[in-house]
Amino acid sequence: MRKKFDEELRHLNNLLLEMAMLNESAIKKAISLLDEKDEKTAEEVSNYEERTDVYEGIIQKQCLKIFVEQQPAAGDLRRVSSALKMITDMERIGDNARDIADICMILPDDYDTSRFPLIKQMAEATILLLNKSIDSFVNLDMDSAEKIDDDDDVIDNYFVMIRDQLIDIIKSDFDPAAAIDFIMIAKYLERIADHAVNIAKWVMFSIEG
């Protein structure tokens, strides 16, 4: 009986990893639109978002299957319940990535986005944070999950630096409307990081209750 449960749990972990990979790809492709607008890439981000919705439903069914067939108790029950909570955050991450892509696609063609390397650095740090949170669940790594909240401070600092940079640029020659677009991209990245923190909190719950 335990062997069957472990198999179902491994399948659940694999589904979560696949959903996380979709999130990562969506964020990377959305940010790449800062360098070059491309309708195909924007459509891919939208498709990733739709696929995360599909994965959410598949994982919900997998969790229900485990509940009904395996009737998990104590720690196992918390683990499956946490997975149900985590996919809500992961689905919203897909939404945020699509929002970033939408903003990038409406930016005027003549804007020099290379003036904002901090946004790309922030995106890389956000993806790393998301991956750490998912890995902590799969590996039942309490230490890693506890550090996620501190790592989120890095993302918050990026947001502050980007905001201050945009304020300085507006004082010179930059279009305020475009500045709002860039600050919104940074804000969506910050929200993604917040979802990663939520995931880590559910990991801690799944381990210690």
From TrEMBL:
Protein name in UniProt: Phosphate-specific transport system accessory protein PhoU
Q: What protein family is recorded?
A: Belongs to the PhoU family.
Q: State the function annotated in the UniProt record.
A: Plays a role in the regulation of phosphate uptake.
Q: Which NCBIfam families match?
A: phoU_full
- State where the protein is found: Cytoplasm
Chief subcellular location equals cytoplasm
Q: Which Gene3D superfamilies match?
A: Phosphate transport system protein phou homolog 2, domain 2
Q: Which gene encodes it?
A: phoU
**Regions annotated as coiled coil:** none
Report quaternary structure and partners: Homodimer.
Question: Which residue numbers delimit the PhoU domain?
Answer: 16-103, 119-203
The record's Pfam families line, in alphabetical order, gives: PhoU
Give the source's domain of life in one word.
Bacteria
Q: What is the lineage of its organism?
A: Bacteria, Bacillati, Bacillota, Tissierellia, Tissierellales
Question: What's in the keyword line of the UniProt record?
Answer: Cytoplasm, Phosphate transport, Transport
Q: Enumerate the InterPro entries for this protein.
A: PhoU, PhoU-like_sf, PhoU_dom
